[in-house]
Cobyrinic acid A,C-diamide synthase
Amino acid sequence: MPSAFYLSAAHKSSGKTVVSLGLCAAFKQQSLNVQSFKKGPDYIDPIWLAQASGNPCFNLDFYNMSDEEIIRLYEQYTSQSDVAIIEGNKGLFDGMEVTGGDANADLAKLLNIPVVLVVDATGITRGVAPLVSGYQAFDKDVNIAGVILNKIAGDRHESKLIQAIEHYTDIPVLGAIRRSTELIIDERHLGLMPANETPESQGFIDTAAKHISDQVDLDRIVNLNQKTVKPIVPVISSKSKGITVAVAKDSAFGFYYQDDLDAFESLGVELVYFNTLKDTSLPQADALFIGGGFPEMQLESLSANQSLLSDIKAQIEAGLPTYAECGGLMYLSRQITHQGQSHAMVGVIDADTVMTLKPIGRGYVQLAPTDEHPWNDVSAHIYAHEFHYSKLENIDANTRYAYQVLRGVGVDNKRDGILTHNLLATYTHLRNVGSNHWVKQFVDFIQSKI
């Protein structure tokens, strides 16, 4: 009977990710099986949460998942856990629609779990009471079961905050975390620096766990909500057994949805991971998948690995079925220019990548396939997302595209999905959901080329 709660905040940058990491790691240290989830389209927080909990983290997203899919995914991976933690994005009631329906509060209601509200206490004392009581009153169907006060200046500050909350509200204070330089993660343009790029990430997680264990009532939190969840056993298909897909996974490329990777395996596909910084050739495989990441932070090492660059180019030009997203698209272009320095990349895409100071594409995307799309049974409307601080220049005028962009930016505000040989490379990040079974489409394409 797992315990479950939703960790949200009054606004973004309240420190809820650090609190989430600390809670996951602290519960794990108690020998509990911890399952984490993240609301919305995010790769970086799930990488951290997976490391902290010891289990893969899964995304729950109203934009491209039905309510039934969200519930099914949540129950599938919660059923075998002792405690489940969903980390929200932005504030508790923030979403795309002004009338609600897609906010953190709506996800907590859908899954019928209590909310623990992280409050950034910087520069506030008595004023915390109307803030907390206002959140409680805004939607009576949301169960705010407790508050964790964050970034506390000292004993006096903590005392004033707790007195105000206890006097004016009936919401319990579950913890009060002191401000500390030990609880700061470096940020990059897409959010927190990924744990897969940070050698000291485990040390940070351990430090966060100690702060949380010392300053948060873990026993009270783990007993907030317990309910029986019926286990769901995934079905393994034998149709695609024998197919192997090489997947780039290292400090340059690490942006993959875990349930997308699971979808390959559910089809009987073997995933073989390789390192673009160290491996000199691709592993033996029937296809290639290069996801997103921050290749711009590893340009010298990527460019210096000429043996792998040449092997990837030769195999794609020889017809190796390949799918690449965002960072993978950049890696397959001729070169990447960052801070005035250009480095040669694979060069199978006739375009140059240029990093920019401001976001080019950031947010939800809607695509429609063109007649050029090489995969079969592609959805007429695809709901996905993009996050890129780069653009393509000097694109070959004869480039073919797989998608028309209905919402978002893609390659040129009109199109996305560059096609060459058996390669499809997009700025858009796809999600394997009921309305877009892209993994099966790609696997079927691979089978047709073997």
Observations:
- Residues 3-222 form a domain with the Rossmann fold fold (CATH 3.40.50.300).
- The longest helix spans residues 201-215.
